[in-house]
TrEMBL record:
Coiled-coil portions: none
Annotated region (Disordered), positions in chain: 138-162
Domain HTH cro/C1-type: 40-75
Protein origin, superkingdom: Bacteria
UniProt source species: Longimycelium tulufanense
A GO molecular function held by the record: DNA binding
PROSITE patterns: HTH_CROC1
Name used for this protein in its record: HTH cro/C1-type domain-containing protein
UniProt xrefs under InterPro entries: Cro/C1-type_HTH, Lambda_DNA-bd_dom_sf
C-alpha cells in the first residue's frame, strides 16, 4: 500500500523548499494558492499535514499540486509519486551542489564581474559558458571518470545535469 496523503504532503514540504532552503509555512502555501485562484486556509493545510483531514477536494489538491509543481496525480497514483519523488531528490541534490558552488570564491568573483557587464555582454558571456558547459558534459558522457578539471566533490549522476 502507498503512502498516505499526509506523508506525501509532508514530503513535499520537506523537499520543495524556499530559496533560503527553508520549509514553506502553512500560511505561505495557503496565501499563494489562494492568490492563484484556489481557496484554502493555512489551518486546513495544517490539518492535512497532521492527518486530521484526509479527504480534500479536487480543488484543494489542484492548488497544492500547483504550489509544489507536481501533477495532481502525485497525491493518488503511487507510480507518479515515486517518479516525482525521485526527480525532486535529484533536483534537491543539484540545488545543494549549486549552493556549494556559489559559495566558492571563483564563482562569486565571476558572478560579481558578470553583474557589472552590460546586458548584451552578459548574454554573450552566457552563450560562451553554455558552449563550454555542453563541451564538458559531452566529455563527461564519453568518459564517466572524473576529469582533472571537474569540481571536487560534485555529483556525477543525473542531478548534475538538471
Amino acid at each position: 500500500m502507498g503512502r498516505s496523503l499526509q506523508k506525501k504532503l509532508n514530503h513535499l514540504f520537506a523537499t520543495v523548499t524556499s530559496d533560503q532552503g527553508r520549509e514553506y509555512s502553512h500560511e505561505q502555501v495557503a496565501d499563494a494558492i489562494t492568490e492563484a485562484g484556489w481557496t484554502i486556509s493555512a489551518s486546513y493545510v495544517w490539518s492535512l499535514r497532521r492527518g486530521r483531514k484526509t479527504n480534500p477536494t479536487l480543488r484543494h489538491l489542484e492548488g497544492l499540486a500547483w504550489f509544489f509543481g507536481v501533477p495532481v496525480a502525485y497525491f493518488s497514483d503511487d507510480a507518479v509519486t515515486n517518479r516525482i519523488d525521485q526527480r525532486l531528490e535529484e533536483l534537491k541534490a543539484e540545488r545543494a551542489r549549486l549552493v556549494e558552488l556559489m559559495q566558492g570564491s571563483d564563482v562569486q568573483v565571476m558572478a560579481m564581474r558578470a553583474g557589472e557587464l552590460s546586458a548584451s555582454r552578459r548574454k554573450l558571456l552566457m552563450e560562451f559558458l553554455d558552449v563550454i558547459y555542453r563541451e564538458q558534459q559531452a566529455a563527461r558522457d564519453a568518459d564517466p571518470r572524473p576529469s582533472s578539471d571537474s569540481v571536487e566533490g560534485s555529483p556525477g549522476g543525473p542531478a548534475s545535469t538538471a
